Amino acid sequence: MDPRRKRKLRLFVALGAAVLLAGTLIYTSFSASTQAKEPSDLLTASEPGRSYELTGKVVKDSIDKDGERLTFRIRDRDGRESLPVTYAGVVPDPFREGREVIVSGQLQAGTFVAERDSLITKCPSKFTKDEQSA
Amino acid sequence: MAGVGSACLVVGLLTAVYAAAISIYGAVAGNRAAVVSGRRAMYCVAGLALTATVILQAAFLRSDFSYKLVAEGSSTDTPGFYKFTAMWATQDGSLLLWAVLMSLFASAVLYTTRRSLRDIAPWATAVLASIAGFFLLLMVGWENPFETLAVVPAEGVGLNPLLRHPAMMIHPPMLYTGYVGFAVPFAFAIGALIVRQTGADWIRATRRFALIAWTFLGAGIMLGALWSYSELGWGGYWAWDPVENASLMPWLIGTAFIHSIMVQEKRGMLKVWNVSLIVATFALSLMGTFLVRSGILDSIHAFGASTVGRQLLILIGIVLIGSTALIVSRLDDLRSKAKLDTLLSREAFFLANNLVLVALCVVVFWGTFFPLISEALSGEEASVGPPWFNRVTTPLALVLVALAAIGPVVPWRRAGRALLLRSFRLPLTVAAVTLVALLAFTDAADSTLSLVMFVLISLVLSVVFQELWRGTRARQTIAKVAWPRALGQLIGRNRRRYGGYVVHSGIALLFLGVAASSAFQIQRDVRLSPGESFEVGGYEITYDRATAEIGRDAAGTGAPITLGAVLTARRDGEEQVLHPSRNFYPSRSGAAGPIGRFFEGEATSEVAVRWGLRRDLWAAVRPDIADLEPAIREADSRFADSGQDVQAVVVAALVERYRNNSPPANFRAIESPLVSWIWIGGMIVVLGALIAVWPAPETRLRRVTSIYAAKLGKELSRV
Amino acid sequence: MEFALAVVVLAGLVAVVVALPLVRGGGDDTDPVARAELEAAKEAKYREIRDAQLDHEMGKLTDEQFRAVDRELRAEAIAILERVDALDRR
């Protein structure tokens, strides 16, 4: 095969591989993703049995630890609506009331039942004004 | 002194603007004196930034709380080392770190190229000065580190306890050195494009900077992973968190860059590709800096919207759009005469390596920005987690390791197929033996992907060994010396090649640790009372008793209260004692009572790790102070108005009670095979990079070149 | 006040440092520059020749392949040396 055709063929193969990769990326990411919601979103409309990522702030005085189980309420970042959450698993060090958290799970009968070890707490602000009170 | 600091920043900004302007003038008008003036201006910027840094650090070290930054980030009880590193734990301080590193690196490269690259250097100066000036502008305009407080507080807030770990404090300077280091080849690439000198000169002048930047960036990423593993309570080292990914992406493209520049140096090919890669590397470095400060992505680290996010985004836009326009306008100058003739050549393998690395970066980028992408495409904000990342990156990583195994064997330009196959006899044998051994003696077969990775790793290591062996033998024949000297000479005369092979070995070992610890890790979470035991992997672990210390924090972070446990781990008749604990830092808010605040503030896990070559045993404890709560409440009301020393005694008594009662506690224990090889591999990578970067002694070169010159001179006269 | 004074002093220092070359009218000496660049290119080419030699010694290239590559590289090296010569003669 003359060199120019060889090069064209190689380019074609490379582009084909790129398209394949892009397709895999798009397909797998959309099917494996979880939607991020705030409590007000879930209270308005949620599909039963579907996993979501609930984000928001921990409500003051709502934390209760009973052995392995942790219960607390999450409220909208800038709102009043809140949801109760039950969680089991590792509790990150920065977790406390007033902090922003992300937890994955499903809404069951009005309570957000979280997946094990899925609680993420945002590090207290390094680059913005630190809140001195919860 | 704060006024002097601010003045340094303002004058620095003006000088940087002058440097850029006069350099451009000198380049356009051909005025050498102007160019020299611009270079000196850059030196001045470095000096001013350095002075500002020294002033700020001095304020931190003497706990001068009239400085807002010191009051917010440090305290009198913050240990000395962390006072020094607290500067870059803050937004303003980290901008200053960027600026000082940028101006120092720029000065270094301008000094080393002061007698060469006459046409390119002025433009590079302008670019570098603009970048340094940008960060100075951010400080002068929005986030001044030298802001003072009208009312000087008696005590500072203190450094966030989670950051009080040596790895965490060295991590930012390392990352920034990486980002800044990549700005140097970027600036010279832009200069080369502007003056249409697209040969390999700009690459040769900045190659070492690129390599040093790559090494520091990689080391910084490693330190972050090490911190996560040994300081946080989850026992993992990589979470595919957006901020982690933000530093990984420029590193991936940077790796591609340091490979493909070799192709341009040898064959003059891939010119467009190289300039595009360095633009991408630098843009991703800025993106890394931006992501941490923008709050646009949900992350453990996303520190909320800040005041400089938008400006960084504008700079990234200018860099991308400007560079792309420049590249497109110079496409004719970037055409290379040489073309890739055969796939069986080192050039082809480098290109393949590049494509895989770019693919990896695209994947990481896609996953990181997926919340924004999905919101734009479907209206719903969704995100992907570590399982998706692992699933998509693993096959690409396998291909990468395979390429690293074959590449070193293939020579430049063209390879004889028969010779090549003969070269693979030993490595393939080793790989086969490894496969059989793993299947027979271990349960590695439980994870097919890991098995494949292990076999590929054995291929990489045996290829490197073979290269060293054959090279040493060849050297022995030529120079008639014993093999140790031959090996030393071999590496010494071909530092880039053999340094690179050492790096490959390090990366292979790193992947060994990652594969083994991901696929074969065993983790248990339990709640135990003293005397109870549990099993994790091959260990039996017993909770002996509780521990409690006042002011004697083993990690040296200045924590007043440390509650922990003594664990005994037994395996195969051997015993090891572990002391995981939890540090409690007092809360600064007024909400908690005078005694309670010692227990309500931040708490960090002090993990107990037994490092080992074959496996690590990792344990963390979460003490349960529920039993103490009633006593704490009572103490709060009873001793509300007592002096500090009385309160200290009360706290000590409560802590003592915890130790005596030894209540049940929650434990997490992890048995992680081969995880230490990640850190060992990382250190070997740094060693290899050091070898590759080390300048060859001048004298040896001159001797060799004179021999060649004589030979070639003879040929010349014959023609 | 401290700020303003510091700005004036620092700006003055900087001005002196950067104005010196302008006042002196920087010497023009293109030759060492061009020479340094050619030297760098020459070293790089010599390294390539040595790399090819090493590959040959280690058995990655056949004798014939090595001869072809070596000839190419030496021709390129000669071209560079010619340019150095031309510069010296000027």
Which structural traits does this protein have?
heterotrimer; A: 134 residues; alpha+beta; OB fold (Dihydrolipoamide Acetyltransferase, E2P); 2 domains; five-stranded mixed beta barrel; 8 strands; elongated; C: 90 residues; mainly alpha; 3 helices
Report on this model:
The complex is a heterotrimer of chains A (134), B (719) and C (90). Chain A has helices at residues 3-32, 39-44, and strands spanning 34-37, 52-58, 64-66, 69-75, 82-88, 100-108, 111-114, 120-121. Chain A is α+β, with helices and mostly antiparallel strands and 134 residues long. Chain A has two domains: 1-33; 35-121, Nucleic acid-binding proteins (OB fold (Dihydrolipoamide Acetyltransferase, E2P)), CATH 2.40.50. Chain A has a five-stranded mixed barrel. In chain A, helix 2 (39-44) links the parallel strand 1 and strand 2. Chain B is α+β, with helices and mostly antiparallel strands. Chain B has helices spanning 2-29, 32-61, 68-73, 80-85, 91-112, 120-141, 166-194, 201-231, 242-267, 271-294, 309-329, 346-368, 370-378, 386-406, 417-423, 425-441, 448-479, 483-493, 495-519, 597-600, 629-638, 644-661, 676-693, 698-718; strands spanning 382-383, 522-528, 533-536, 539-550, 561-571, 574-578, 581-584, 603-606, 608-610, 615-623, 665-673. In chain B, strands 3, 4, 5, 6, 7 and 8 form a six-stranded antiparallel beta sheet that branches. In chain B, strand 5 and strand 6 (574-578) form a beta hairpin. In chain B, helix 2 runs parallel beside helix 6 and helix 5 runs antiparallel to helix 6. Residues 699-703 of chain B have low confidence and may be disordered. By secondary structure, chain C is mainly alpha-helical. Chain C has one domain (26-89). Chain C contains three helices and no strands. The mean pLDDT of chain C is 79. Chains in contact: A-B, B-C.
Strand and helix layout:
The complex is a heterotrimer of chains A (134), B (719) and C (90).
Chain A lengths: L2 H30 L1 E4 L1 H6 L7 E7 L5 E3 L2 E7 L6 E7 L11 E9 L2 E4 L5 E2 L13
Chain B lengths: L1 H28 L2 H30 L6 H6 L6 H6 L5 H22 L7 H22 L24 H29 L6 H31 L10 H26 L3 H24 L14 H21 L16 H23 L1 H9 L3 E2 L2 H21 L10 H7 L1 H17 L6 H32 L3 H11 L1 H25 L2 E7 L4 E4 L2 E12 L10 E11 L2 E5 L2 E4 L12 H4 L2 E4 L1 E3 L4 E9 L5 H10 L5 H18 L3 E9 L2 H18 L4 H21 L1
Antiparallel strand pairs in B: 2-11, 3-4, 4-5, 5-6, 5-7, 7-8, 9-10, 10-11
Helix pairs in contact in B: 1-2, 1-6, 2-5, 2-6, 5-6, 5-7, 6-7, 7-8, 7-10, 8-9, 8-23, 9-10, 9-12, 10-11, 12-14, 14-17, 16-17, 17-18, 17-19, 18-19, 19-23
Chain C lengths: L1 H23 L5 H28 L5 H27 L1
Helix pairs in contact in C: 2-3
